[in-house]
């Protein structure tokens, strides 16, 4: 079988077979699963550690706490970035507590040992009082793999890990046109959500829920699965492309211009009236308008984006826990990480990252209008504040699913074809953990 997708690519190249392993409920709540994931998954994959915008000068650092581990990434004098486990070699005190900062030396709060940016010990109290001699200049923090891409610093606890660029394939090539590294994080919220991290993964690995959970999107995003491109890559990452600025083919009146589309048309100086009864022609017209007006308005990133990228949604789910949703004017990071101790909770992070445009002082984000400025991290208590209106809809169902998956009435999933990315995710996970198939 070889079917051309609308992106002009061969579907079967990116449509690997699945086995049909049962997706048992236990994986969403068992402590054994949680431990197996720590042992066989999390210590072997690349993690986003933070933004390069926070690592401008030598000594600048970012810290990423993951379950009970903590990693500090530090900009070096030669411009490189190195990552170390954030634990003092003396007696194990956590060294750096703030998630962003800068210092020439890291001083341990317990006995005052001082560590250089390169992880080498430069000062210890009573340095001559060690049976093996003075440890200064010899003791080194444990270093792990570190690299950069897309405006982010990444780390991997496995020093024998595949290089980041290879692990990310084919994203760097496909996303080069967006100029991600030149953008600014304008939204940064983090929340402990009462569900296992994989429930959020499953949600982002399918678009089957859009008509039921996010029906309002259909006026402006074509959520018809027959008009959506799904690709699953050998790396374990996958991509879904939906046409934007185009009403869904599922709608009773797909040719009507609803207010959401009219607003986008107006923003690009197109008259909604002209598209009355032929709304599905608006997408191409918008691409043209953005191409021309974008230059005048200083949208430099448009120069390197394709026509499709000017209107469409390129939604990537990276193995195992990172979603990167590329929109025409920015992108979202939607990440779910396991809770340090409770398999029925996770940490959900939502970032929105947007390009610089001359005169841009405010931007519309998933939580509303905010200043176009580097956002500080906000930790939200679940249910007390929005995490973004679409994310709120997703999280609301995730919590109920966590309950239902405990039931003896749930037998392991009954998926549609268009949810194949979920099936593949769980089979990759089974393989990584060495779980018997079945
Ligand atoms: S534990 Fe760090 S100096 Fe003692
Ligand atoms: Fe959703």
UniProtKB/TrEMBL annotation:
Cofactor(s) this protein cannot do without: Fe cation
Lineage: superkingdom: Bacteria
InterPro entries with a match to the protein in the record: Rieske_2Fe-2S (IPR017941), Rieske_2Fe-2S_sf (IPR036922), Ring_hydroxy_dOase_asu_C_dom (IPR015879), Rng_hydr_dOase-A (IPR001663)
Keyword vocabulary terms for this entry: 2Fe-2S, Dioxygenase, Iron, Iron-sulfur, Metal-binding, Oxidoreductase
Gene Ontology MF term list: 2 iron, 2 sulfur cluster binding; dioxygenase activity; iron ion binding
Domain Rieske: start-end pairs: 48-155
Name of the featured protein: Phenylpropionate dioxygenase, large terminal subunit
């Amino acid at each position: 079988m070889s079917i051309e997708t609308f992106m002009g690519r061969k579907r079967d190249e990116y449509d690997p077979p699945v086995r049909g392993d049962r997706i048992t409920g236990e994986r969403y709540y068992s402590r054994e699963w949680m431990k197996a994931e720590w042992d066989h998954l999390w210590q072997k994959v690349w993690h986003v550690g933070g933004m390069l915008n926070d690592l401008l000068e030598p000594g600048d650092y970012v810290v990423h706490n993951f379950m009970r581990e903590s990693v500090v990434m530090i900009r070096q004098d030669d411009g490189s970035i190195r990552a170390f486990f954030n634990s003092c070699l003396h007696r194990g005190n956590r060294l750096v507590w703030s998630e962003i900062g800068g210092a020439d030396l890291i001083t341990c709060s317990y006995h005052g040992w001082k560590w250089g940016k390169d992880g080498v010990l430069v000062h210890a109290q009573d340095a001559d009082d060690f049976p093996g001699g003075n440890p200064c200049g010899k003791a080194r923090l444990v270093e792990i793999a570190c690299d950069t891409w897309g405006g982010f610093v990444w780390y991997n606890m496995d020093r024998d890990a595949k290089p980041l660029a290879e692990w990310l394939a084919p994203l760097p090539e496909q996303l080069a046109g967006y100029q991600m590294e030149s953008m600014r994080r304008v939204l940064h919220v983090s929340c402990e959500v009462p569900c296992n991290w994989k429930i959020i993964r499953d949600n982002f690995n399918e678009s089957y829920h859009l008509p039921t959970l996010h029906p309002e999107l259909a006026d402006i995003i074509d959520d018809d699965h027959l008009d959506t491109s799904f690709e699953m890559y050998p790396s374990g990452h996958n991509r879904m492309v939906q046409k934007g600025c185009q009403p869904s083919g599922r709608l009773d009146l797909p040719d009507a211009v609803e207010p959401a589309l009219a607003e986008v048309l107006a923003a690009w100086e197109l008259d909604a009236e002209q598209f009355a009864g032929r709304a599905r022609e608006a997408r191409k017209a918008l691409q043209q308008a953005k191409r021309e007006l974008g230059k005048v308005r200083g949208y430099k990133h448009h120069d390197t984006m394709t026509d499709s990228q000017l209107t469409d949604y390129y939604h990537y789910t990276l193995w195992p826990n990172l979603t990167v949703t590329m929109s025409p004017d920015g992108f979202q990071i939607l990440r779910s990480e396991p809770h340090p101790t409770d398999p029925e909770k996770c940490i959900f992070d939502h970032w929105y990252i947007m390009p610089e445009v001359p005169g841009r002082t405010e931007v519309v984000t998933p939580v509303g209008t905010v200043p176009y400025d580097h956002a500080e991290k906000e930790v939200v208590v679940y249910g007390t504040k929005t995490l973004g209106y679409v994310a709120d809809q997703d999280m609301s169902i995730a919590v109920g699913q966590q309950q239902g998956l405990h039931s003896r009435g749930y037998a392991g999933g009954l998926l549609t074809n268009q949810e194949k990315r979920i099936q593949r995710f769980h089979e990759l996970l089974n393989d990584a953990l060495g779980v018997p198939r079945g």
